[in-house]
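ok so I'm stuck.
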Amino acid sequence: MQSSVFLDFNQFFAMKYFKLFLFLVLLTGCTTVKEYQKVYINDTDMELSASEIQRFETNFQVYREGAAGANGGKTGGGCGCN
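replied:
not stuck anymore, here's the structure
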């Protein structure tokens, strides 16, 4: 039978190694950008935009509301008193 002190000691080192592993994994995401690569940072390919799924969900939501068309244009109250 192991004592609780021994288990706590093992858990302490297991957590310590886990934190070290996590730090090393996260460290690999850091990199430096070379001068000649900085030209590509401002490309249109690097811009964040809505994905196809987000566009579909927005289209569906606006269409479902029924107050406007499925294009996400001006919406009203649905009573004809815009």
